[in-house]
């Protein structure tokens, strides 16, 4: 009886084995697939994929990904952070869509390329690992990175006052009157900040209209509209704009300061939201170059170095153009 | 205890089968990148490449091998490649070489060999099958060339059907209809069409004489379509083949038929599953 059971188990294991594709080899080389009279070897697939333009790009992405994973492993804080972001998202959907929230969220996640909420969380964790990778470099090279950021982005501290309008193109008399009153007050000695805290309809009202440090990475147009962003990025220190039609109303902007040292002081603490981590898309190549990486294959070394060198050259060219 | 060990062993094998690729590249253990906590072997990178684009690469490789067997007219391929190059040249701002480099290719030649030639060959392979089986494909995919006029009332539609007895008469009505009329060109059952009109394609594709379809087709928005079917003798062969080759479902079916004909097999479960995810017709 005991023997029968063992035979049964052995058969079961054979079934498991046969369920697994039996590796096919030809002259010691693995055959991935075949058609009549022709075999496709693993080496052929490797060669095609690794030498193609797409494959070369993939090589850098893969090595970078491994470098980040090994040097900045996932922490419980990252997991918790990702869970909180996901929970907030789920709650927002519940509040907005009620019983249909799950379906709406699933659809939104799919559209953004996530299989499910767990995949979304994984992606946030990966982003946080990536941030840590950049953060370490930025902290260690703060003066140099900040100087470059200041030169490239011309950051400034901004404040704003918003007058909400249901149809900004056709304001009501009441909305017009409120805007006119704010404009009149701005001609008096009352400060912009006090007017903002008393009259602004924006969420920054409690912060006296302060929207913080603004640069092109802040994507103000997504919140306030394109014209508001344009004005915010060009306004001189101490100046106040005329009312600008934007998203959901009119805006009056003030450039509080463009002073380098003031802004530098504010950005000294590098957190995940720091503009210093996102302003330069080529920073990753600079950081990658600081690691002592050894190559056991000349073509791999050549491919990676070429990608890094080309991108760093583009980065240098951009800075030359700017100056 | 022994049983438990065996069960664990079986379980381990199962896990190994379902989660990893079984195919190995030569020198798989060779470390290609190390230092700074890294220890990446050639196999690690191969697995990554398989995961990102292995299924598509195997399919492309196999279909291109089949194309090399099926397409024997090299001059025709070269001609088609040149034409495709010209099309890219037209749209590439600053020339094809610059465009190729902007996409990461080292030169125009690399772009032509890596991108254009495979696309041309696969397209010609699909068209070859369609050409050889044109009437069957036309019937299967309910291919029809038609013009249509949309009106609000059934009575108006029936009046047009009664009056537009010739091509010239229909074309006059079509012109008068302005934006309510159009030459839909060649459509298949997978084209983007009103659902009710799509249901009629089977009947329309069977018509063997050009002319106005005898019924007013009630559309899903409660309007009525009057349809004039043309090219029922399928003389417009090149365009019919082109339309079928552009139908992604038809293209998939054709590729599946070639793969079956050449007894396509994959020796890796994970890869096979990924290929089936692209189309369950590609592997039996």
TrEMBL record, chain A:
The keyword Signal applies. Residues 1-23 form the signal peptide. Pfam families: Rotamase. It is an enzyme of class 5 (isomerase). Keywords: Isomerase, Rotamase, Signal. GO terms for molecular function: peptidyl-prolyl cis-trans isomerase activity. Its EC number is 5.2.1.8. It comes from the Bacteria. InterPro entries: PPIase_dom_sf, PPIase_PpiC, PrsA_foldase, Trigger_fact/SurA_dom_sf. Coiled coil: none annotated. Residues 155-257 form the PpiC domain. It catalyses: [protein]-peptidylproline (omega=180) = [protein]-peptidylproline (omega=0). This is peptidylprolyl isomerase.
TrEMBL record, chain B:
The lineage of its organism: Bacteria, Bacillati, Bacillota, Erysipelotrichia, Erysipelotrichales. It comes from the Bacteria. The keyword Signal applies. It comes from Longibaculum muris. Keywords: Signal. This is Foldase protein PrsA. Residues 1-21 form the signal peptide.
